[in-house]
Amino acid sequence: MKVITTLASCFFLINIAIAIAKPKNLKNHNSLPSGPEVTKSLLKKFSKNYKNNADLKKLKNEVLKFSGKAVPALIGVMKSKKYPDKSRWLATFLLGRIVGQKSVPFIAKFTKHPNWIMRMASLKTLLALNEKKYAGVYVDSLKDDSFIVRTQALNNIRKLKLTNLSPHVWAMLYDKRNYYEGNKKGKDNKTKGTNLIKTVIKTIGDFKFAKAKVPLLKMINKDKYDNIFAELDYSLQSITGKQSPRGPKKIKKHFWHRIALSEVTI
C-alpha cells in the first residue's frame, strides 16, 4: 500500500512537472533537450560530491532553467541514498521552488525520513513555502531524535506564528534531551538550558501563552534557572503585560516574587 501511495505521489508530481514545462513556443521547445535527456544529465551531475558552493550554485541554476523537466530527477535524488547529502538537500529545496505548494504533501513525508538531513531539508523547505497546514508534522518533529531537527521544527512554528501549538512548544521544557550537563564536577555539575530552551521560553512569551505564567514565575526565582533568566524575564513581561524594573537581576527577581505572591493570593 505504501509503495502504491509513493508511486502515486511521484506520478502526481511528474504530471505537474509536465504541465510546468509545457512550452509556449513550440519552435523554441524543439531546441531544448527532451525530458528523459534532462533527467539523465541531472542525475549524473547530482551524483557528484560537490565541495565547492559555486559548483552547487551552477547546478541549481541549471535545474531552474529546465524548470518542470527537472522534477523527475529531483524526486529520484531525494528518494535514493546513493546521492550525496548536499545533493539531496538541494534537490528538496529546488522541488519546493519549482512545484510550489503542490509539492507540500510529498515533501512533508520526508520529515519521517531515516536521514536527519532529509528531515531537516523537508522542514526548511516547508518553511520557505510558508506552509501552515501541516501543523501535525511540526508537532511530531518537536520530539525528533535529532536536536538540530527539533530546533528547526521550533523555528518553523515560531516564524509561521502558529500560536495554537503553544502547548506543544511548552512541553519541550520537559524533554531532558533539550538540556545539557555541566562539565565541572561537584555542585557545578548540573543540568542547564541550551539555546533551544532559551528559544522555547521566548516563543512562549511571543505567543503570550497564559498557562505558562505561574510556572515561569516559579522558575525565575530559582537560582538554577539563572542561565535563562533574561528569557524568563522577557516572556513574563510579554505574558503579564508588566514591565520589570531596570537594574540588576536581584531587583528583577524581587519584582517577580511580589507578582508571584499576588498570583497565589488571587
Task: Give a structural overview.
With 266 residues, the chain is mainly α. It has 2 domains: 1-129, no CATH class; 161-266, no CATH class. It has helices spanning 2-21, 26-29, 35-46, 53-66, 71-79, 85-99, 104-108, 116-128, 135-141, 147-159, 166-170, 195-206, 213-220, 229-240, 249-265; strands at residues 179-181, 191-193. The chain has a two-stranded antiparallel sheet. α5 runs antiparallel to α6 (85-99). The N and C termini lie far apart (57 Å).
Dominant shape = elongated
Number of helices: 15
| Span between termini | 57 Å
Radius of gyration, in angstroms, nearest whole number: 24 Å
Kindly report the spatial arrangement of strands forming the biggest sheet: 1-2
Structural class: mainly alpha
Number of strands: 2
How many separate structural domains? 2
Low-confidence region ranges: 1-30
Helicity, in percent?
55-70%
How is the topology of this model organized?
Elements: H1 2-21, H2 26-29, H3 35-46, H4 53-66, H5 71-79, H6 85-99, H7 104-108, H8 116-128, H9 135-141, H10 147-159, H11 166-170, E1 179-181, E2 191-193, H12 195-206, H13 213-220, H14 229-240, H15 249-265
Helix pairs in contact: 3-5, 4-6, 5-6, 6-8, 8-10, 9-10, 12-14, 13-14, 13-15
